[in-house]
Design brief:
This protein has 112 residues and is of the alpha+beta class. It is 20% helix and 33% strand. The chain contains two helices and seven strands; from the N terminus they run E-E-E-E-H-E-E-H-E. The strands form two sheets. Strands 5-6-4-3-7 form a five-stranded mixed beta sheet, covered by helices on one side. A hairpin with a 2-residue loop joins strand 1 and strand 2. The longest helix has 12 residues.
């Protein structure tokens, strides 16, 4: 069951599609978002999906380029989400924390 949380932000409705009881209140923006990191199996090729970086106000292209160079893999940006070739969930989480992009409590890694 997917729980939808609707938060009003400056007259607009924002929706969080978390499967958890969501406590992801970002103090900088007052919205309900966390960074979600998934492993997606596409045909026989896995890729890592990073969601909600754009909704928190981060430059997705710069972050994608830094991750692509660090991991030596291909990447693309699809609807504001970063897709990296291969399973890099732990490395991406550690990268986001060490570069002070996102605090540890705002990251959810799925698939374990």
């Amino acid at each position: 069951m997917i729980l939808l949380y609707i938060i009003a932000m400056e007259g607009n409705d924002e929706i969080c599609n978390c499967t958890l009881p969501c406590e992801c209140l970002n103090p900088n923006y007052g919205t309900l978002w966390k960074i979600h990191i998934y492993l997606i199996q596409n045909d026989s090729h896995p890729y890592t999906l990073i969601e909600n970086l754009d909704k928190l106000g981060f430059n997705v292209q710069t972050t994608s380029k830094q991750l692509r160079k660090k991991l030596c893999c291909g990447s693309k940006i699809n609807d504001g989400n970063i897709e990296l070739q291969g399973d890099h969930r732990d490395i991406v989480r550690d990268f986001l924390i060490t570069k002070n992009i996102v605090d540890k409590k705002y990251i959810i890694v799925h698939g374990y």
